[in-house]
Amino acid sequence: MTPEAVFSLASTLVLPQWLLMIFAPRWAVTKWLMQSYLIPVCLAVIYIIYLFSGGPVDFGAFGTLAGVKGLFSKGGDGVMLAGWVHYLAFDLVAGTAVVRDAQEKAIPHWLVVVPLFFCFMLGPVGLLLYWLIRTVRTRTV
Questions:
Q1: Domain tally, the chain
Q2: Which domain holds residue 56?
């Protein structure tokens, strides 16, 4: 399978859970997906395969911006794909945490939809938006 095909597969793999979390957050299938972490685990397997398929990773490079830049510029499609899959997996985990936390704290779901959209598109921005809503609604940090 080409990296481009895996990119499309991985990007498509996350969509059902995102849509379910937005439109059917309390449905049994949605809850099962959120509790099982099935999709992030599948993404983790893809991540490992592509991160290490180009040879050993220079973990020392993670210590500097120039090192990380070098990993991406020299790593080719496999490292770029691994980086993308990393974003997909952790954004989905963040979105799952938002939905679960909002349900635990009885925060109305309509207040969570916008942060979920931003978690999907811009990860940390969505998490920040949710944190602000959560702080205001629960009056706790």
A1: 1
A2: 3-139
